[in-house]
Amino acid sequence: MRQPQVGEPPALAVEQRLHPELLSEAPQLADTGSGSFPRLAATRRIVPMRAMLLEAVRQPLREADVARPVPGVGEVLLRVKACGVCRTDLHVADGELPDAKLPLILGHEIVGVVEETGPSAARFRPGERVGVPWLGRTCGDCRHCRSGRENLCEGARFTGYHLDGGYAEYALADERFCFPLPEAFDDLHAAPLLCAGLIGYRSLVAAGDAERLGLYGFGAAAHIVAQVARHQGRKVFAFTRPGDAEGQRFAVELGAAWAGPSDSAPPEELDAAILFAPVGALVPAALRVVARGGTVVCAGIHMSEIPAMPYDILWGERVLRSVANLTRRDGEEFLRLAPAAGVRTEVQPYPLVDADRALADLRRGAVRGAAVLVP
To answer: How many domains does the chain have?
Structure first.
């Protein structure tokens, strides 16, 4: 490492250890509030942090030293304790969700401790543990935001997509969109609650009061929803990839009345089904096993093309709907419910530097429960 010369500002010695291509834009980005990194205050010493960078879609992440961000108005700087790995991260990394900020730090299931607060940030104090979800901020003024549907805000910005996320040692967040976390969950086991749990809960609500509930794709979200549904007295039927005997055993361990391949019919007609697997062909499959008046909920942010299907499998007042993102109210309700329902998250930890391996394991269905990165 180059040593600082006599009379050279100390900050420059740190800059030499950082990637110059990442630092070159710092003065322009310092006060934009855009969520781009690095957000630097011109008068502050540059402090490095480790991060896994997505520099181009469909490319491996790169481990790098980048400038630790500085909290702006209403923001908190968090020291990341754990960050869940979500299928949405795969959709972003694969370019299936357009217009991601690049370079980008993925990750939107962040458990962190407040390290520093920005101007006017007063909701949390340094040392407090908080969770950061997918919904990073909204405009607060559109008709959706004003009617309790901030999840549909067209000006919303999402963590790990438009805003840098938690595949790093530190992360910034708007304090208004952070959640206090239940003490019943340690850092590692709290991380999956922040997306798998939240979107699973919103999907469960969308499914109505279905007594017989089908879950397609038994991964991070389904393994949490199954426990909540059982707590509510529902009967759970789990569908996995054909041949995934381990996934089927896992579902039964968590209280499923039946578990089988997604190309088979359950032993009973369903009142509702939630599709967590992003496979369009599952839509007609689920409609065929849902009773008249039942609901099929598509829970993912991305799905492969839905094939043509006959109208008669939708007829009979069956409902096909999607869910989009989450609201802060969803988060508050679910984070109260999870400990009361005795939810136990199954996690598979990975070091931060193994983020690519975690994503690859998730892609091939080799994760039992949820993958979580630990800096």
So the answer is: 2
Q: Where are the alpha helices (DSSP H) in the chain?
A: 10-15, 20-23, 26-29, 87-93, 143-146, 187-190, 196-206, 220-231, 245-253, 282-289, 328-340, 355-363
- CATH number assigned to the domain comprising residue 203: 3.40.50.720
- Name residue, tokens 């055993």: 249
Name, in order, each residue with C-beta under 8 angstroms of 358's C-beta and a sequence gap of 6 or more: 85, 348, 350, 367, 371, 373
Which residues are bridge partners to 261 per DSSP? 240
Which amino acid, residue 49? M
Whether residues 230 and 174 share a domain: the answer is: no
Q: Read off the pTM.
A: 0.88
| SS3 state at 11 | helix
pLDDT in tens, 328-360: 999 999 999 999 999 999 999 999 999 999 999
Task: Identify whether residues 189 and 220 lie together within a single domain.
Answer: no
Range of the domain at 349: 25-194+345-374
Tokens 């005795």, located at residue: 342
Judgement on whether residues 29 and 127 belong to the same structural domain of the protein: yes
Q: Are residues 202 and 317 in the same domain?
A: yes
Alpha helices in 166-244 (DSSP H): 187-190, 196-206, 220-231
Identify the bridge partners of residue 296 per DSSP, sorted by sequence position. Answer: 273, 320
